[in-house]
Each structure stands twice: as structure tokens, then as C-alpha cells.
Give the backbone structure.
Amino acid sequence: MTYPIGKKIIPPIANLWIRKVNGLENAPKKGPFIIAANHSSYMDHLIIVCTFVKHTDQKVHFLSKKEHFDNPLKAAWHTYAGAIPIDREKGGKEALRWAVKALKHGKIIAIHPEGTRSQTGKLMKGKTGAAQLALKAKVPVVPVGLIGTFEILPKGKYIPKLKKATMNIGKPMYFNEYYKKPVTKRLLREITTKIMKEIAKLSKQKYNFN
């Protein structure tokens, strides 16, 4: 059983902020797959982990900036939760290599393609990390749209408001037709745009980047 203690304590707490989860039947029952979601709040992690861990009984490994590991308390929590530190100044290549290896061993990786929390709650331009993982590990991407987490705990705030969020889970996206093509910046951008447009649809937003 994954997170034997956390599974009993954390979900009831998380449910204080979850209004509804739609599309859970779209999520595979086990890994490997990539969860790609919009990001405007630390609440995003809590809601995603509680929902997918209960559904799959597997750890969800987040790609998380290395600064979260500077503080001993935060480092302990992120390590327990299965977070993977990313050195953004170096492009996160080491973390991506770890994530590819983990996916090939049947694990679940969660990533926010925007790279950081939105300061307005609106979608930002996606980075190509999710696309790179999908091609290198040859696994599907499960798009997720989170609605309302920004209103609960926006960037710069530390006490969550007692409001409710909704999570919409889309059907897995497969990119088999790209596997034999040369991996170029243009190809990675094309895949990233497809992923971000699904996230936009699920979060009831528009994605106006190419």
C-alpha cells in the first residue's frame, strides 16, 4: 500500500477543498503515465496526489524545483511525497532523465508544463518537458484541468481559504505517430501545444500560444 499513514490522514483534509472530480474513469488504473496539469496554487499538488493515489494505489512523483528542498521541513515532506528536484538553471535535464527511467519502470510522473505557478490564475505558455518525457518514455499523457485552486491559495499566500476546487481529468493522449520522427524544437512545441489545449479545455480556459 502506498503512503500507508498519509492515505488515512491527508485525503479527508484535502476533501475540504475538493468540490468534484470529473473524468476519473479516464485515468489508467496503474502507471506508467504522465499527469499534465495547469498550475496556479500549491493546492494543485494536494488535490492531484490524493485523487490519483487513491485511484491507482501508486505514488505520484512530481517534478519540483530544487528550492523546495532547501528547508529541512519542506525537504522531508517533498521527499516523502516522492518529489523530484529540478535545477531550473541547468534546464532540469537530470530530473528529466530520472523521470524517464521511472516511467520505464511503471511509475507515475506529474508535471506542470507551465513550469511555475501562474500569478493570475490564467494559463501561461507551456514548456516542452512533458512532451520530451512522453516521447522518450513512450507513455501516454493524462491532461488535467484544475478550476478554483487559485482562489483557494494564490501565489504569495500561505493560508488557504475554505473554498472548493474542481478537477477535470481528460482521456489519455498518445503520441505514437511521433516516435519515429526526428525530435526537433518544432515537434516538441507541436506536442506541447496539443497538451496545453487539452488542459485549457479541461480548466475552461483558452490557450493562445503556439
Notes: The helical segments are 6-14, 43-56, 72-80, 93-104, 129-137, 149-152, 185-202. The longest strand covers residues 141-147. Residues 6-202 form a domain with the Glycerol-3-phosphate (1)-acyltransferase fold (CATH 3.40.1130.10).
